[in-house]
């Protein structure tokens, strides 16, 4: 394997470590000195506030000697004042040593500006740089002050206080840069604080060098360590690859042992799930093939039924055509001269033509519904009003067969659907009920709302449908009682039209046997709003 996953993981880790080193060194060179300077300024400000607090609690004189009103040598008050002074100076020394800063507290007699001549007017109260005597102007205690006054290269920093100012000063005598804080204490004395910036340059160089050495060492160790660690992961991946190869050979018995919840564990679980899914899918495919064979058998059966239907249709059409032809020839040859006979011949011709037209129309309607030849015309209409009108128009048929009609419904129920197709479906249910009504000869039509659905049902008393024929009556050309169907001229298409219509509208339909008859029903969408 030219570039294994182990090698890629190790190189990626090494590149990450080296990139981290580069960014760290670059950030150190660019920002460490500024950050160090910022920290030093905060240190000087903190020291200024601490010195101010010390001098608020320590009474001092110009000669740095306790000055307490009524002081007498070896008196108790003088001893307490002396202790206060000693403690204050000790606190100042500790502050200087802890923060590596030089401190000078002084006062200026009659001066408002600081310059070279001010040096001789200083009254040094405290200094961490040697002798603080005011009589020796060359004392080490004045170096912090002289270096500041005699340096012209200064850079001021913005501060939020009026009590002090902060500057970065280059001291030519020492060839180094310092940060100075000049301020005035609450007791009227001045304070000057100084700290060096030279150490940051040396510290940054040492830090960068240390980073480089450490990172190189860590990178080498990490690279070797990663080669060993990655072997564990790559071996698991190879195991998964082996299982995948088995699956490609349709062997789903091998499963990956999932022992962790990391990415490898998730992948292993996914492989196991995929294996089970493929195995199930193949099993379902076999079942689907068996079902396909069954469907083919059913198709053959339907073809046989179609042939039977065509035979029945041919028989049904043959008689009307023969009657039409015979009576038409009789009219043509003037077999009967009286007007009543000619009108009878014409009535027979019209009746038989209407019967043939009905058969053809049903076949055309079924074909258009099944194959979607016509676009649905969805409307919002009152199904109660529609059904009521169709029932009223069939009143003469009920009377002819001496049928008792019972119509049950609410005042109005608005539904969504194609009015023409729904009327056709209801008409087929009603015709079916009229053709099969028997016994008490009762037909009950019911329209009721159930939630967001409207249920339309047609019940007729008479013989029940055999259970083995319940699922088949919706198949086109299927007839339960062929003799009776031929008797009333049925084609076996009406219920198929209902099935095709409801499936196209996406609604439910069905049939239920009752003790005294059969009930056919279908549902319609009765929701208030609908996107058309």
From TrEMBL:
Residues making up the signal peptide according to the UniProt record:
none
Name the keywords, alphabetized.
Answer: Coiled coil, Kinase, Membrane, Phosphoprotein, Transferase, Transmembrane, Transmembrane helix, Two-component regulatory system
Extract the coiled-coil ranges from the record: 271-302
Gene Ontology MF term list: phosphoprotein phosphatase activity; phosphorelay sensor kinase activity
UniProt enzyme class: transferase
Give the EC number.
Answer: 2.7.13.3
- Catalysed reactions, semicolon-separated: ATP + protein L-histidine = ADP + protein N-phospho-L-histidine
Q: Does the keyword Ribonucleoprotein apply?
A: no
Specify the HAMP domain's residue ranges: 231-283
Q: Which residues form the Histidine kinase domain?
A: 312-528
Q: Where are the transmembrane segments?
A: 210-229
Location in or out of the cell: Membrane
GO terms (BP aspect): cellular response to phosphate starvation
Query: Is Kinase tagged as a keyword?
Result: yes
Q: Which PANTHER family match?
A: HISTIDINE KINASE (PTHR45453:SF3), PHOSPHATE REGULON SENSOR PROTEIN PHOR (PTHR45453)
Can you say what this protein is called? histidine kinase
């Amino acid at each position: 394997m030219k570039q294994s996953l182990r090698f890629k993981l190790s190189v990626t880790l090494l590149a990450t470590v080296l990139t981290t080193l580069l960014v760290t060194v670059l950030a150190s060179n660019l920002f460490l000195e500024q950050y160090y300077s910022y920290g030093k300024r905060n240190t000087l400000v903190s020291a200024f506030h601490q010195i101010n607090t010390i001098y608020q609690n320590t009474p001092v004189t110009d000669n740095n000697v306790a000055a307490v009103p009524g002081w007498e040598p070896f008196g108790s008050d003088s001893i307490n004042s002396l202790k206060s002074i000693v403690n204050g100076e000790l606190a100042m020394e500790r502050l200087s040593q802890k923060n590596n800063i030089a401190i000078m507290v002084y006062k200026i007699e009659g001066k408002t500006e600081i310059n070279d001549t001010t040096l001789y007017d200083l009254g040094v109260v405290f200094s961490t740089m040697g002798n603080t005597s005011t009589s020796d102007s060359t004392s080490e205690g004045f170096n912090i002050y002289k270096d500041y006054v005699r340096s012209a290269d200064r850079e001021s920093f913005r501060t939020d206080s009026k009590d002090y100012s902060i500057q970065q000063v280059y001291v030519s005598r020492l060839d180094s840069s310092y940060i100075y804080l000049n301020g005035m204490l609450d007791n009227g004395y001045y304070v000057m604080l100084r700290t060096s910036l030279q150490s940051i340059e040396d510290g940054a160089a040492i830090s960068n060098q240390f980073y480089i050495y450490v990172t190189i060492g860590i990178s080498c160790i990490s690279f070797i360590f990663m080669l060993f660690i990655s072997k564990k992961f790559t071996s698991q991946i190879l195991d998964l690859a082996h299982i995948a190869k088995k699956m490609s050979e349709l062997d789903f018995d091998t499963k990956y042992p999932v022992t962790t919840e990391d990415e490898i564990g998730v992948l292993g679980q996914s492989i196991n799930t995929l294996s089970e899914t493929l195995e199930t899918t193949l099993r379902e495919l076999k079942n689907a093939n068996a079902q396909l064979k069954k469907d083919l058998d059913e198709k053959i059966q339907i073809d046989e039924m179609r042939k039977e239907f065509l035979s029945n249709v041919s028989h049904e059409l043959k008689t009307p055509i023969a009657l039409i032809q015979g009576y038409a020839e009789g009219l043509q040859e003037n077999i009967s001269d009286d007007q009543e006979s000619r009108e009878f011949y014409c009535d027979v011709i019209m009746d038989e033509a209407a019967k043939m037209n009905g058969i053809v129309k049903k076949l055309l309607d079924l074909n258009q519904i099944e194959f979607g030849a016509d676009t649905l015309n969805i409307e919002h209409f009152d199904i109660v009003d529609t059904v009521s009108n169709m029932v009223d128009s069939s009143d003469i048929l009920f009377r002819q067969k001496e049928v008792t009609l019972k119509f049950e419904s609410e005042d109005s129920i608005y539904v969504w659907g194609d009015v023409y197709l729904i009327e056709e479906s209801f008409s087929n249910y009603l015709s079916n009920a009229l053709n099969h009504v028997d016994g008490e000869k009762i037909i009950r039509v019911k329209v009721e709302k159930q939630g967001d659905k409207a249920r339309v049902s047609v019940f007729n008393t008479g013989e029940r449908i055999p259970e083995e024929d319940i699922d088949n009556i919706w198949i086109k050309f299927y007839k339960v009682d062929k003799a009776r169907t031929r008797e009333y001229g049925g084609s076996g298409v009406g219920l198929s039209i209902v099935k095709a219509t409801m499936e196209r509208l996406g609604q439910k339909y069905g049939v239920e046997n009752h003790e005294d008859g059969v009930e056919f029903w279908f549902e319609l969408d009765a929701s208030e709003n609908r996107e058309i």
